[in-house]
Amino acid sequence: MAGRQRAGSRPASESQARRRSMPAEAAMPSLSSRPTSTASGILRHPGINALRAFFGRRSAWPLDVLTHPRGIWYNAVATPSFAAAMTTRAHWPVVAIVGVGMIGGSIGKALRARRLAGRIIGVGRSEASLAAAKQAGCITEAAVDVAAVADADLVVIAAGVATIPTLLDAVDAVIRPGTLVTDAGSTKVSIVAGWERRRRSRRGRFVGSHPIAGSHRRGPAAADGELFVGRVTVVTPATATPHRDADEVGELWSALGSTVFMMPPREHDRILSATSHAPHLIAAAVAAATPPATRTFTAGGWRDTTRIATGDPELWADILLDNAGNVGTAMRRFAVEVEKLLTVIEAGDRRRLVALLSRAKDHRDAVGS
User: What is the per-residue DSSP string for 242-308?
Assistant: First the structure.
């Protein structure tokens, strides 16, 4: 695959024509390899073999999609030379961010710091919050009317998952034909499916995405232009999504520093139920089960375990309900592990307890710090 060019020979719109293309993708390394630098400064990230093994019999997409260069992306801000090159290779003259909270504000700051956009328009409901975002350097302009996205070359919707479908419709009604649109929602199936039901009548080119770089902190004051560096972002094209559209969204997150994986929306929601959504419920359960009288004696372990339970309950309720089936499956797996631990503790079986704890430690150690 080395040196293979991406699909699509002609820009789909004036918006895309104003964009500069990235270099051709390089061949994918194996899971056992470490990230390696290429001549252009791109870090090739390991893991494609793991993706093939994990998704090969489960994915709705054919296996060759996962071995296509789009199956795994790159860590963009790998070297100063590549960061400098990105300012000319990836550039959107006008970017609109709908929802300028912690994630949206971080996107804006990252775009500005890397000179990847000329104008950055923040759209939101609160004039005070938008003023704070502008003061913090997240955006260059602010608007409370979604019509402000009409001139954008790229629109990013960084709002709660329950509001994204409505915002997508509102944005699509005012943008120029061919404008690229993505989101930053924590679930993907319902959002992508809602768009796809009306794909033929859409003006924009939508590709879903999810930067796995959240925080329990909220608002533009918590925005960080380096938030996405070294973090994973998942891009979730639908079956009908043109490769060039998915590639361009991948370029966005890659330019902000993410290692970008592409997978179908269903796989995203299934994986994230185990790595993000169910853990939030577990953290909430630990916090709720701790008697108030014992709070004085909580140690670092308790605080580490329950930190994510401080997230916005309204936002998290929408995420959990939108991915309820997968979250239920993940929680039942958790219950099985809890039952195993209880059984060996009640039996006084130290050997089996050590074995279970060791297996858990190995799983955690494999992730790193």
Answer: -HHHHHHHHHHHHHTT-EEEE--HHHHHHHHIIIIIHHHHHHHHHHHHS-GGGGGG--HHHHHHHGG
